[in-house]
Amino acid sequence: MAIVLQRKRKLRPSNDLNDDECKFAKRELKWVKYSAENLSVDFCVFYDKSKADYIYAKLEEECDWNTGKAAQVMIFGRWHNIPRKQVHVYKDGEDYIGEHKDDEKDLVKTSPIASLSLGQTRDFVLKHADSRGKYAKRKMEKIKIELTHGSLLMMNYPTNIYWYHSIPIRKKATGIRINLTFRDFVTK
Ligand SMILES: O=C(O)CCC(=O)C(=O)O
């Protein structure tokens, strides 16, 4: 699972958008809101199928996929495994991420965490900390969101403080899924 991608070419600066890109950036998105106790998640189809297909193909064509040491980065003196933190490739439904909260020391806790999905649809499951495991303090409904090809999920503050998230095993999911996660880190 979990392989880093590195672009072979440089990205253009974000203020260098052509007319089509400006139109795309300004278009209306149909957001769906998920709310529960201390949970706020926004979800939308960000790229239609043809755009999502195009980006998926570009990622496959233009990126080198690394593993091991080559897939790590040093942040504030600590080695981070980029695959776990930023880019995930799930080769099929056997690849998964267990229940966790994002706990990077330098994460700006109040910033949303944005997660873009490409390829195989997978479930994203949110569970309140109080409702986990054998010694759960109380019963709370878990929340399941289908992360479809081209979709964008925004996990807003304070969701990540109170809720665990995971991508569970789905044996029937046979395709590859690429996930790009965007987080805001404190810079010194
Ligand atoms: O693949 C995903 O959508 C979730 C990734 C994730 O849980 C994480 O980066 O902490």
Would you identify the CATH H-level superfamily?
Alpha-ketoglutarate-dependent dioxygenase AlkB-like
Low-confidence stretches: 1-13
User: Which H/E pattern describes the elements?
Assistant: EHEEHEEEHEEEEEEHEE
CATH class (first level) name: Mainly Beta
Shape: globular
The major beta sheet can be summarized as: 6 strands, antiparallel
- N-to-C span: 32 Å
Sheet with the most strands: spatial strand order: 2-3-12-9-14-7
Distinct bound molecules:
2-oxoglutaric acid
Number of helices: 4
Q: State Rg.
A: 17 Å
Kindly estimate the percentage of residues that lie in beta strands according to DSSP: 35-45%
Write up what this structure looks like.
- With 188 residues, the chain is of the alpha+beta class.
- It has one domain (31-182): Jelly Rolls, CATH 2.60.120.
- The protein is 16% helix and 38% strand.
- It contains 4 helices and 14 strands.
- It has helices at residues 19-26, 49-62, 82-85, 159-162; strands at residues 4-7, 32-36, 39-45, 63-66, 72-75, 78-81, 87-90, 97-100, 113-119, 122-128, 143-147, 151-156, 163-167, 177-182.
- The strands form 4 sheets. Strands 2-3-12-9-14-7 form a 6-stranded antiparallel beta sheet.
- The protein is globular and about 50 Å long.
- The chain starts with a strand and ends in a 6-residue tail after the last strand.
- Residues 1-13 have low confidence and may be disordered.
